[in-house]
Write a structure and sequence with these properties.
alpha/beta, 5-stranded parallel β-sheet, 16 helices, 33 strands, about 30% helix
Amino acid sequence: MSKYVIVGGVAGGAGAAARLRRLDENAEITVFERGSHISFANCGLPYYAGDVIQNRDALFVMTPERFKEILNVTALVKHEVTAINPAAKTVTVKNLDTGAETTEAYDALVLSPGASPIRPPIPGIDDASIYTLRSVSDIDAIKSKIDNPETKRVAIIGGGFIGLEMAENLHHRGMQVSIIEAVDQVMNVVDYDMAAMVQAEIRRKGVRLYLKDGVKAFERRGKDLAVCLQSGKEVLCDAVILSIGVRPDTKLAKDCNLELAPNGAIKVNEYLETSHKGIYAIGDAISFKSPLLGMDVSIPLAGPANKQARICADNIIYGNKKAYCGAIGTSVAKIFGYTAAATGLGEKALDRAGVPYKQVVTHAMHHAGYYPGASLLSIKILYNPESGKLWGAQAVGVEGVEKRIDVIAAYINKEGTISDLAEFEQAYAPPFNSAKDPVNMLGFVAENDRDGLSTVISWRDIPQYAEKGAFFLDARTPEEFQLGSLSGAVNISNTALRSRLAEVPKDRTIVVNCGMGLRAYLAVRILRQNGYTDVVNLSGGYMTYKAVQDELELLAK
């Protein structure tokens, strides 16, 4: 009879235990979890804080008792594995309630220790009203604090997915919420133009947003807790929630000399096996090869952890036959009235890697515009300009966001190209879609750029075109133009352009924009076919440009 030991529960460890049992009915399977809960809905914690999920028990995916009853798996909480002896194939386990230590043998060992919230050494960070959010115990402490009627103001440090979800849920509870982020945008996994739309929504809801301003210290002012920022500003609050990020929890792996990646995560091969034969690792604590760039990456998300658990169990039972293809980091968050999602690589990652890329931004209705309830959906793709291979995508909107990102993620995982997006066949009926899906439109625009029909530029390119003395042509209506425009732009609507070509110079680069991109494309085609060779189209139009400029102006104040 084989004996499998799993260190850590939640998504990875609990999933591996369940799959191992389904494949081997006779094995002895033990899960050791140092926390108080073996498997819980980590991603649901912010919604429990906001009373959207009101039943605490709904957070628990599996209890030790149910694990034993359903799967005959022994799950021991408050039991910490303190050492691994790879040569003897044993682990040392400490009962955190009694302090007693035991030694457990294994035939295969699975490490799923997860990741720990980052608590930087900031003066005052040990104040009792400063919390992190990673476990049920964490959310219980936060819930106790915010349920107190005296708690009215909460500062969230970090504008990542969890920080923004907490901001929304605490705002829903009637709290005065401030978000403090050290870099110049929230949601660092998306590019600035997409984040700008999210930030505008956050501000509309009355949440205070402090960007590019790190925390210098936390100081007590009687009942108030002051968050002292690097800029000299102070945010007074009743509680602070740290959402700065996580780091792989790999002390156990390091102590037994498992090979680690530069970021401290456990290195695994394609079979999810570590540098020691018979010891596997999954979840937030591992590093694997990116399927996009081939470099070591860690992606602390529940989806990849669950898939890794299944593959890991298969390789333990059947031998290392099933390779893990990696993850590209597909994620989504609800942020007040918006949904924001991303997959693959954004500008920052591509710039760091030094690989070529182009980008396209479109704005379209999430279903047929003539059908009631259509809402605007903004999507961006990044791709290799030579091969058309997709690098990544991001989207922000009210509805239909995650559906499009999921489609593009599937293509990225299959090394899809912009032509695949153009040819994507979707289910169409007016309440659900348009005959040409927003995903198709991204492919069309990128193909037009590739084929020389319309050269696309980004909002970031505008200053250099201005310096070169480009002629800025706004193809919107005069009424739209009066509401705001690019500096120095001349307004000639696309419908009037044919009769006003004499007003457009041929000895300068022509930068064309409209509201969202389509009318500018029509104008570009008119110009190109009338002898204008140096013409470019602003991707995403004035809508993207204005969203970015509004945020940059606020940041500069």
